[in-house]
Amino acid sequence: MAKRDYYETLGVSKGASADEIKKAYRRKAKELHPDRNSDNPNAEEQFKAANEAYDVLKDADKKAAYDRYGHAAFEGGMGGRPGGGAGGFRGQGDFASAFSDVFDDLFGDFMGGQRGGGRSRAARGNDLRYNLRISLEDAFAGLQKTVTVPTSVSCDKCQGSGASDGSEPATCPTCSGMGKVRAQQGFFTVERTCPTCNGIGQIIKDPCRACQGAGRVEKEKSLSVNIPAGVETGTRIRLAGEGEAGLRGGPSGDLYIFIDVAEHQLFKRDGHDLYCRVPVSMAAAALGGDIEVPTIDGGKSRVKIPEGSQSGRQMRLRGKGMPALRGGQRGDMFIELAVETPVNLTGRQRELLREFDELGEKNNPQSSNFFSAVKGFWDSMKG
C-alpha cells in the first residue's frame, strides 16, 4: 500500500515554513493521541504516521531529500528504509525526539514551564492584597487615596540579579539554563524541575550581601490609588506590577485593593439605592406637612408627608441615590417614616390625649380592623 504524502498527512502545503509544519504537527498530535481516542482503533497508526511525517519535514536535509525524491529518498540506496539506516526514520527513538520538540508547546503551560532553552526562569513575584475601608460619602464621590504597602522590591545594590558587584549569575550546569531536566521513560519524555537551580536556570556563586542572592528586599511602598465613584464593599481594584518583586529580576506580581464601605449613621445602601429612616411626630404624621431630609451629596431635599401617614410609609426621591460604578444614572433614595410616640407628657398633654382617644374608632382604622378580626377569631374558637 502506497504511503500517504507527508505534507498531506500533516495538512500543510509543500511550501510550508518550519513554523507552520511544527504548528500543524502540534494540532495533529493533540487530535490523534491514543490516550484521547480510545474509541478510534486507527488513532495510534494515524498518530505514528503524523510523527513520521514530522520527523522528516522538521529536518532541513531530510525535507530537501523528500522534496526531491519523495518516499524513495529513505528506501534502499537512498539512506535505508524508515526504521533502518542512519539516514532514515528510526521509529520509537525518533518519536521521542519529535514529540520532545513540541512537548513545551503542548504541556508547558500546565507544568509551569517556559518554552525554549538557555533563558532565565526567574520566578514571578506574588500578588498582594490590601484591604481599604472608606466612607459611604467617599464611595459616592470617589477619591484619590495614598496607601502604604509592605512588600518586596527589587534590590538596588545588585539591580535584582542577586549577584554581588562585579559578578554575574552563571548558567546552571545541570539543566544548561532550561530550569528543568528531562528523563526518557519508554515512550515518553518526562520533565522535572531542576534540583540544582530550583527551576530558575541560573546559580549565584557570589550572592549579593544586601539581598542574600534573592534579588529583592523587604520595603514599604506608598502608592496612589484612584477609587472611582460608585464602588461597593467587595469591589476589587488591580494595580498591575505593584505586587511583590520577582526573584532575581523576575516580573513583579500585582496588587489588589479590596474595598470595604463603612456603615453610615443616616443611610442604608442597597445596590444603587439609599434608604433613610426619618422620625416624625404623631401630630405631623396625622396632620401632614413638609420636612427636610439630608442627601448623600451633603444637600437637602423637601419631602411632603401626606395626611394620616403611618410608620413604614416610603417616599421615593428619584436620582438621589448612589452612582453606577461605570457611569450611567444614579439610583434613588427612599424616605421611610417612623411615627414617634410622645414621651414625658405633662398633665395637660395626657388629658388632651385621653380626650382624643375617646373620639371613637374612626380615627384609628387599623386598630378597629385588627380588633374586629380578633373578636371574630375568638368567636370561631368558641363555636
UniProtKB/TrEMBL annotation:
Binding site residues for Zn(2+) 2: C172, C175, C194, C197
Gene Ontology terms: biological process: DNA replication; protein refolding; response to heat
Zn finger spans (CR-type): 142-220
UniProt xrefs under PROSITE patterns: DNAJ_1, DNAJ_2, ZF_CR
GO cellular component, one term: cytoplasm
Lineage top rank: taxon: Bacteria
Residues that coordinate or bind Zn(2+) 1: C155, C158, C208, C211
Residue ranges occupied by any CR-type domain in the UniProt entry: 142-220
Record localization: Cytoplasm
Molecular function GO terms recorded: ATP binding; heat shock protein binding; unfolded protein binding; zinc ion binding
Free-text cofactor note: Binds 2 Zn(2+) ions per monomer.
Pfam families on file: DnaJ, DnaJ_C, DnaJ_CXXCXGXG
Alphabetically ordered keywords of this record: Chaperone, Cytoplasm, DNA replication, Metal-binding, Repeat, Stress response, Zinc, Zinc-finger
Ranges occupied by CXXCXGXG motif repeats: 155-162, 172-179, 194-201, 208-215
Cofactor needs: Zn(2+)
Similarity field: Belongs to the DnaJ family.
Role according to the record: Participates actively in the response to hyperosmotic and heat shock by preventing the aggregation of stress-denatured proteins and by disaggregating proteins, also in an autonomous, DnaK-independent fashion. Unfolded proteins bind initially to DnaJ; upon interaction with the DnaJ-bound protein, DnaK hydrolyzes its bound ATP, resulting in the formation of a stable complex. GrpE releases ADP from DnaK; ATP binding to DnaK triggers the release of the substrate protein, thus completing the reaction cycle.
Entry domain remark: The J domain is necessary and sufficient to stimulate DnaK ATPase activity. Zinc center 1 plays an important role in the autonomous, DnaK-independent chaperone activity of DnaJ. Zinc center 2 is essential for interaction with DnaK and for DnaJ activity.
Subunit structure comment from the entry: Homodimer.
Protein name: Chaperone protein DnaJ
Higher taxonomy: Bacteria, Pseudomonadati, Pseudomonadota, Alphaproteobacteria, Rhodobacterales
Encoding gene per record: dnaJ
